[in-house]
Amino acid sequence: MSNNSKIWLSSPHMGGNEQKYVQEAFDTNWIAPLGPNVNGFEIDLENYLGDDVHVAALSSGTAALHLALILLGVEAGDEVICQSMTFSASANPIVYLGATPVFVDSEPDTWNICPDSLEKAIEDRITKGKKPKAIIGVHLYGMPFKYDEIRAVANKFDIPLVEDSAEALGSVYKNQKCGTLGDISILSFNGNKIITTSGGGALVVRNKELKDKAVFLSTQSRDNAPHYQHSSIGYNYRMSNVCAGIGRGQMEVLDKHVGLRREMNRFYQECFENVQNVTILKEPTSDYYSNHWLSAVLFESYEQREALRLAFDKENIETRPLWKPMHLQPVFENSPYYGGDVSEKIFERGLCLPSGSNLTNEEKNRIKTVLQQFF
Ligand SMILES: *Cc1c(COP(=O)(O)O)cnc(C)c1O
Predict the structure, then answer these.
(1) Mutation test of ligand 1: which of 60, 94, 185, 188 has the most ligand atoms closer than 8 Å to its C-beta?
(2) In this structure, which of 26, 159, 229, 266 has its CB flanked by the most CB atoms within 10 Å?
(3) Sheet harboring 176-177: ordered strands across?
(4) pLDDT tens digit string along 186-195?
(5) Would you tell me which CATH number, out of the four given (3.40.50.300, 3.30.70.100, 3.40.50.920, 3.40.640.10), belongs to the domain 18-251?
(6) Whether residue 86 has its Cβ less than 6 Å from ligand 1
(7) For ligand 1, what atom is nearest to the CA of residue 86?
(8) Residue ranges per domain, the chain?
């Protein structure tokens, strides 16, 4: 029997220099949630993203979304529009604030928020007496959403756009990096993302004042006084200097890892080349450049998808159904929803395949063998 160790969907992939930065944090005793690695990681991200953005390194992508909504003035009783097909972390911070999520369907090209359904949703909410306070769009699996179309709707109604770029660091839309497209954008460095700080996230904003405000909120909203003085509610959301050290090492290999993820996607395109009725999520036009964080595939039917998932499972290979749309989640069953059944249909038939930048040739062969035997 060949080696049958677990093949993961997406596991951390260290570049080599992470420990150097972490060691520096220990050597200088900067273990606290501030220090040279935090500043260094933020500068690395600002240089990478370009476009004069300002970055605040935080404890998670979810924390970044929470602060994004606070900075946009979302309060109890407000409504916030959110792409339905996404990870629950995109929507939860709306509820933390006592606001109501309004979910919107996907379109079939990028699987992300549908501009037509978005427009209908806004018009209807305004008719019902409430103009949404923000729109949250998500680049699922690294695929940029239809930015120009979504931006046009946001501008038409003068509603700010929050870009959930948790899965899309390294993706590009029309020569502009994902993470710089929103009025406010967020990134995640959770363990399974394209780069990781073991756990972490970032808020990306357009000016220094907003960044300073985010950092203030993320460090318990301490007023400038020798004692502890507070005139607003604070959060403990800053990234630690140890985690930021891992992030600095990871930034050195980000482009390389994007290349390897895209190579995994080409590997799957070849695997499915001669298979009927199977489609891989791919860029609709050359305006889109995905980091292909995860390679996601639509099968003929739910039954076929499940059979393949179990066939992989038997060989100790991890796969995962797509994000289950939020309007189908028990916890959000009372939230308004606009659209048809696009995301439901994609959810039913879709599967994410192992996509890590660290998969070996032997592991790829094991995956290919399962696919060849199945089809
Ligand atoms: C991972 C993820 C988040 C949350 O990031 P964390 O760092 O895990 O809090 C938010 N949105 C999407 C789409 C994600 O995939």
Answers:
(1) 188
(2) 159
(3) 176-177, 172-173, 288-289
(4) 999 999 999 9
(5) 3.40.640.10
(6) yes
(7) 13
(8) 18-251, 254-374
